[in-house]
């Protein structure tokens, strides 16, 4: 008998969700749904602002030399809304699927819900890594431009 077998000898290796855990998960689902709905509302604001900026016809003050600047700003807002959409959708799906899984005692629904939570965190992590890399690149360019001037 190996050392790990001795440690695991008296343990129950089957995962079960207690009533207290179900209560915690249901509370988590409520907050996740709230955050997702708020996220969708902000996505709507982003799209409305992008449309207002793009179709208002007003040039950006102080930037008369940049004729297409309003369309660039509109594109940036649409781009940011597109990025923000996916983690919000994953969070909403997590909330619904885990709640349904608990109510129906369904392992498949719970697994799908946690898969969406994993996707949400993975998307946010990759996005954060890209942003940190972009900041590091800006820092390097800033240092080199300061040295060269």
Q: Given the structure, what is the number of helices?
A: 4
How much of the sequence lies in strands comes to: under 5%
What is the count of β-strands? Answer: 0
Structural class: mainly alpha
**Which stretches of 5+ consecutive residues score pLDDT under 50?**
none
Distance between the termini: 69 Å
Average pLDDT rating: 89
Biggest sheet record = none
Radius of gyration: 24 Å
Helix share of residues?
over 70%
Order of helices and strands: HHHH
Q: How would you describe the shape?
A: flat
Give structural attributes.
single chain; 149 residues; mainly alpha; 4 helices; 81% helix; 0% strand
Characterization of this structure:
With 149 residues, the chain is mainly α. It is built from four helices and no strands. The chain starts with a helix and ends with a helix. It has a domain at 19-120. The mean pLDDT is 89.
């Amino acid at each position: 008998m190996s050392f790990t077998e001795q440690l695991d000898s008296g343990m129950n290796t089957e995962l079960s969700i207690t009533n207290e855990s179900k209560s915690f998960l249901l509370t988590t689902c409520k907050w996740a749904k709230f955050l997702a709905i708020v996220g969708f509302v902000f996505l709507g604001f982003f799209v409305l602002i992008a449309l207002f900026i793009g179709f208002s016809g007003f040039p950006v003050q102080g930037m008369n030399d940049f004729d297409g600047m309003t369309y660039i700003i509109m594109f940036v807002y649409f781009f940011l809304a597109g990025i923000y959409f996916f983690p919000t959708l994953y969070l909403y799906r997590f909330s619904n699927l885990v709640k349904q899984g608990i109510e129906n005692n369904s392992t498949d629904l719970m697994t799908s819900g946690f898969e969406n939570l994993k996707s949400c965190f993975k998307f946010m992590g990759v996005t954060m890594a890209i942003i940190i890399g972009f900041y590091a690149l800006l820092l390097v360019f800033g240092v080199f431009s300061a040295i060269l001037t």
